[in-house]
TrEMBL record:
Residues 180-592 form the Amidase domain. It comes from Hibiscus sabdariffa. Keywords: Membrane, Transmembrane, Transmembrane helix. InterPro entries: Amidase (IPR000120), Amidase_CS (IPR020556), Amidase_dom (IPR023631), AS_sf (IPR036928). This is Amidase domain-containing protein. Belongs to the amidase family. The chain crosses the membrane at residues 44-62. The keyword Transmembrane applies. The keyword Transmembrane applies.
Length: 640
């Protein structure tokens, strides 16, 4: 094992790196050395890690075999550290955007977003195309509310029925850690009154929106069942006193906040399985994970119960579950959405993101929650908010997509084929008005190093934020989270600072890539959703190997604070969704939304298990109320 020798890498200056397609910088695959563990094994590992005698040695070995010593601890590099990935605002002069006034209220911004969309509220969706699978969108609800076809109260009642039904199924869905029927009905009644008076606040009025458990949302923490962050105990030490900023903004637009969705305990792995509150199942196949850590938010949107939900993305935690569950996942630039009221688990990599059935709906929710708080403003220029004119018939031209072949292709065969085809389709179908859409081949060196440096960073931040509680509450963690938390404590200040130097280095590397192209394109995950094991349900599960496969394209979004979006682009042979990811320059959300909008494939979508909130009087008699339109593998609805 070469226990005693781990010479560190000597990193050469970024200027000397060749980022072109024929660079001799080698692509290094993830090579995680850790067993898939649950149950007894997880307990034993936790015991070893926590033991005075073996703990230090075990951590040393883990760090050694996982190349932490080589890439980080013993590395030599000249860069200064970059502790927070905040980006000075640069006006990118993007095409087909409008500038939004910084003082606009959330409801005004939502209206401005609506004005940028091609479909107006007056036009109804093409009902002749109902064979095409479609979840209800924000515009669908709003139209039905305005016409009186259905009321927010009726939707809320059906919503509650559906959630109850979903937890009685042979394979229960476990969407929520906590939801309160009475509170939902109260909000829905108020919204219904507003529609009756002809005075809805915005298009979000009466729209059910779910919130990941780690984001504060009143009144949940004041009830007996208060639970935050997917743990059994955190509420005891961190009472929630009100809405997080993003939740308050949604509420001010009239949205119905329907509860706190399930997540992996403390967000520690991408499986999203929670030993205390169950595994949110994948609506495309309930025997599979929905992906984590925002697992409940992804599952509930995919199942058609909410057009959008909030998540938090500290290491892909919004984009991964969105991709595995076949929905849009959108993570804006670091600092774009205020973090206040979000559990501060890892504050320089984690931030609020949006999961939604369509790009349009992600955009509307983004419009409501984006924009700095006055208290966030530093001496630098506050970032301007631009919205993409998705209604424009002139597409944006001359956008260049960077693709790093060795990285792009380092995934399962079916994911690779599907993503390559989708990319080709994008280039062909949307030649950005005559200007030939270009994909530029590049080399992004040291991606595995960046993943390790991110891991060290998130570990140190979590260890610090939890440290005052852990002594007392360690034993209340699930075994999976407990092992992770033990490993989180393994890194010292040398490693932390080196990781921040690597952050600076990677920012330089990415800045150089962004001089060659506007957007980096990758698959979102290296594989599709994997099965939930029995043991995982009981004790939680750690699967670092599959975890790395799911995580491998995520890190730049978090470590470097870059905006990124995942769009569902197809399915594997088993019918499980595959996502394509676009990573943009800081503050380039409008360009990302333009591309994602163009990429959004509306034909041939497969059915997931879905609850459709439709009125009984709907023209569409095939799917009524909450009847389950359950999928068969070839996408035929089995309901009715
Ligand atoms: C690398 O770092 C580890 C831990 O800091 C140390 O034990 C080891 O001796 C170092 N190896 C070399 C070759 O410097
Ligand atoms: C698109 O929306 C903007 C903003 O509402 C509006 O000014 C513009 O006229 C619209 N363009 C088209 C082609 O509808
Ligand atoms: C980091 O924290 C965010 C919330 O701030 C959470 O969503 C994410 O899962 C955390 N990631 C890890 C790896 O702990
Ligand atoms: C991690 O947190 C523990 C408290 O749980 C603390 O004793 C330890 O020093 C921390 N480790 C580091 C490296 O900061």
């Amino acid at each position: 094992m070469g226990l005693l020798k781990a010479a560190g890498v000597v990193y050469k200056p970024v200027e000397e790196l060749d980022l072109g397609p024929d660079s001799n910088e080698l692509y290094v695959e993830a090579n995680i050395k850790a067993p898939r563990m649950s149950g007894f094994l997880a307990k034993m590992v936790a015991w070893i890690l926590e033991s005075m005698m073996f703990g230090t040695l075990a951590l040393y070995i883990l760090k050694r075999v996982n190349r932490i010593h080589k890439f980080i601890s013993n590395a030599t590099l000249g860069e200064p550290p970059m502790f927070v990935p905040s980006h000075p605002f640069v006006d990118l002069n993007e095409q087909q955007v409008i500038e939004i006034h910084p003082d606009a209220s959330p409801a005004e911004k939502v209206q401005q977003a609506m004005d940028c969309l091609p479909l107006t509220l007056e036009s109804s969706p093409d009902t002749s195309k109902h064979s095409c699978f479609r979840r209800w969108t924000i515009a669908d609800y709003s139209r039905a509310y305005r016409s009186g076809e259905i009321t927010p109260l009726k939707v809320a009642e059906r919503f509650i029925d559906a959630v109850r039904e979903s937890s009685r199924r042979p394979l229960p869905m476990f969407f929520f850690i906590n939801y309160d029927a009475e509170d939902i009905l109260r909000q829905a009644t108020e919204s219904t009154f507003r529609y009756e008076r002809g005075a809805p606040i915005s298009v979000l009025d009466g729209i059910p929106i779910a919130v990941k458990d780690e984001i504060d949302c009143y009144p949940y923490p004041t009830t007996v069942l208060v639970l935050i962050g997917g743990t059994k105990w955190l509420h005891k030490v961190r009472p929630c006193t009100g809405d997080a900023c993003c939740v308050a903004r949604l509420r001010s637009c009239g949205a119905i906040l329907v509860g706190k969705t399930n997540m992996h305990e403390l967000g520690v792995t991408p499986s999203g399985t929670n030993p205390h509150y169950g595994a949110p199942r994948n609506p495309y196949d309930p025997s599979k994970i929905s992906g984590g850590s925002s697992s409940g938010s992804a599952a509930i949107v995919s199942a058609g119960l909410c057009p959008a939900a909030l998540g938090v993305d500290g290491g892909g935690s919004v984009r991964m579950p969105a991709s595995l569950s076949g929905v849009i996942g959108f993570k804006p630039t670091f600092g774009r959405i205020p973090h206040s009221g979000v559990l501060p688990l890892n504050w320089t990599v984690g931030m609020v993101g949006i999961l939604a059935g369509t790009l349009e709906d992600a955009f509307i929710v983004y419009a409501a929650i984006s924009g700095q708080l006055p208290s966030d403003e530093s001496t630098t220029l506050p970032p301007k908010v631009h919205f993409p004119l998705l209604n424009s018939t002139n597409s944006i031209s001359n956008i260049k997509l960077a693709r790093y072949g060795a990285w792009f292709n380092d995934c399962n065969e079916e994911v690779r084929l599907c993503c390559s085809e989708a990319l080709q389709l994008l280039c062909e179908r949307y030649s950005w008005k005559g200007v030939i859409q270009k994909t530029v081949e590049v080399t992004i060196p040291e991606i595995e190093v960046m993943r390790s440096a991110h891991y060290v960073t998130i570990s140190c931040e979590c260890n610090t934020s939890l440290s005052s509680y852990l002594e007392k509450y360690r034993s209340e963690l699930g075994w999976d989270a407990r092992v992770v938390v033990d490993i989180y404590g393994a890194f010292d200040s040398n490693e932390y600072i080196k990781a921040q130097k690597l952050r600076y280095r990677h920012m330089q590397i990415h800045n150089k890539i962004f001089t060659k192209a506007d957007v980096i394109v990758t698959p979102t995950t290296g594989m599709t959703a994997y099965p939930i094991s029995k043991a995982a349900l009981k004790t939680g599960e750690l699967d670092y190997v599959n975890g790395a496969r799911i995580l491998q394209y995520q890190i730049a979004g978090n470590f470097l604070g870059l905006p990124a979006v995942t769009v569902p682009v197809g399915y594997d042979k088993a019918g499980l969704p595959i996502g394509l990811q676009f990573i943009g320059k800081p503050w380039s959300e409008p360009t990302l939304m333009h591309i994602a909008f163009a990429m959004q494939i509306t034909e041939n979508q497969r059915f997931s298990m879905i609850y459709l909130i439709r009125s009984e009087t709907s023209e569409d008699t095939r799917i009524l109320g909450f009847n389950m339109a359950y999928l068969s593998p070839d996408g035929i609805a089995l309901s009715n």
